[in-house]
Amino acid sequence: MNKDGILKEAAENALQNSYSPYSKIKVAAAILTESGNIFTGVNIENSSYSLTVCAERNAIAAAITSGEREWIKMIIVTDSKLVNSPCGSCRQVIYEFNKNLSIDFYGPEGYYNNFNISKLLPEGFEL
Ligand code: THU
Q1: pLDDT at 16
Q2: What is the C-alpha to C-alpha distance for residues 8 and 29, in angstroms, rounded to an integer?
Q3: Closest CA to 118 of 110, 126, 106
Q4: Domains of the chain (ranges plus CATH)?
């Protein structure tokens, strides 16, 4: 299997661990880093709804915690037709680390899209 296939499989395997009892929407993200390592995250919801953290930001937290700031690509998978691109907060957090990241998005029933963060967040905020 090529690296993209391995990355997608990592996200698909993580999907079952999504903690989403409120929305019932599962999302998982996987990041491939320059060193060839893969970091995954899932959405983690909370009864105080606004404390929910998206899959993308949890994958980013895992990569950054391991000192991996150079990323090649991100893959997002979801079981819901209602989710079809990363939310605005995740766009800004992705942009902090890679202003040109390629993001593959896979939804149910064969839905696929590829985004570049530069298109998803034009003129993103930076200090
Ligand atoms: N969610 C993500 O994990 N990533 C996104 O890009 C969009 C939304 C999660 C948050 C919440 O648990 C559920 O999907 C519904 O919004």
Answers
A1: 98
A2: 9
A3: 126
A4: 3-120 (3.40.140.10)
Name the residue at shortest CA distance from atom 10 of ligand 1.
54
Catalytic residue among 56, 68, 123, 126: 56
- Bridge-based pairing of strands 27-33 and 71-78 is antiparallel
Catalytic (active site) residue 96: no
Residue nearest to atom 3 of ligand 1 (CA): 54
What does pLDDT average to over the chain?
A: 97
CB of 30 sitting under 6 A from ligand 1: no
Cβ–ligand 1 contact at 60 (below 6 Å): no
pLDDT digits (tens, 9 = 90+) for 41-62: 999 999 999 999 999 999 999 9
Average confidence (pLDDT) over 69-82: 98
For residue 1, is pLDDT > 90? Answer: no
Task: Collapse the DSSP code of 8 into the 3-class scheme (helix H, G, I; strand E, B; otherwise coil) and give the result.
Answer: helix
